Amino acid sequence: MGAVENIKEVAELVKKFNDIELNRRILNLENEVLDLSRERRRSEEKIEELERALKLKTQLYFSEPFYWMKGDTTPYCPSCWEAKTIAVHLLFGCDNQDGTSGWNCANCKHNYWPQGHRQQLVAKANMVRDR
Questions:
Q1: In whole angstroms, what is the distance from residue 90 CA to residue 97 CA?
Q2: Is 50 in the same domain as 81?
Q3: In terms of domains, do 51 and 68 share one?
Q4: 3-class DSSP string for 51-118
Q5: How confident is the model over 84-123, as pLDDT tens digits?
Q6: What is the domain extent for residue 45?
Q7: Which of 38, 48, 82, 87 gives a 20 to 30 Å CA spacing to 31?
Q8: Quick one: 51 and 83 in the same domain?
């Protein structure tokens, strides 16, 4: 039998004595126990979440420009993982204006282009900077 059930039984017994102050205190105690039960559940959920994140952290590895998991052929968004420790698979096929395809994150909306295309963008940016 749990603490909440025990308190409810005690409250029923107190009602028989018509002691209003004692009944009020038992109701307050019941509310406190319920609050503690909720807090315990939130703590358990947080622990489960942290354990999942820790397990995931040990399984992901970085190979530029993405994070990968052994046995998974779809990369994870480096921006989401590094900023918020959220493992989000990237979607392939977003088209750039010049017709090249790349990867897109549905969560943060970041686009990743193939290495050669990225080098072209950097070269263009350097040319503009050097002018």
A1: 19
A2: no
A3: no
A4: HHHHHHHHHEEEECCEEEECCCCCCECHHHHHHHCCCCEEEEEEECCCCCEEEEECCCCCEECCHHHH
A5: 988 999 998 756 666 677 889 999 999 887 766 656 655 6
A6: 3-55
A7: 48
A8: no
